[in-house]
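Problem: given the chain below (200 residues), write out its structure.
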Amino acid sequence: MIIKQIPMGYMDNFSYVVGCEATRKGLVIDPAPAVDRILLEADKAGLKIEIIVNTHGHGDHTAGNAELKRLTGAPVYIHTLDGDRYPLADYFLKDETSLQVGEVVFEIIHTPGHTPGGICLYSHGNLFTGDTLFVGDSGRTDLPGGHRLTLGVSIRRLMQLPDATVVWPGHDYGPTPSSTLGWEKRNNVNAEEYGYFVAR
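Solution.
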């Protein structure tokens, strides 16, 4: 699996190009406005973008949707509970399901708390967490639709995945651009509150 983490500058967002090495088909997670950077990374990796996925409906994660769709023809996916935030999406996810690009299958995990329709994508030991889980922290819950206890439940679900799972967050807010679930269990500032803390 090919993973390109793209710092966008826009609110310290990360956008991602993720692709299949065998078929050179790819998807984009959370396109921020600098679509030219996304297309450049996809081109450098030799990937054809076939799917656009939003981990949630906040504007800093959806701002590049329309332009990227116009330039690639790729459909936009978002969870139906965030559909009011981006009603122009082509597909509204209702259940925990999977998305496939080439030979790579992504498990869609519904992780409400930051927004009602927040999702994470999991494949081959990699977890794209949007604003559910950051390196060393978790998403805000003081915005409309946010709920702290619900976010805690969502993160505890994620922590049931293997400790070696790589965390790819939606923002560059931590000491490193990525981490692992094992590291988060030992170091995340919310670990004890949310009930997944383990001793160092």
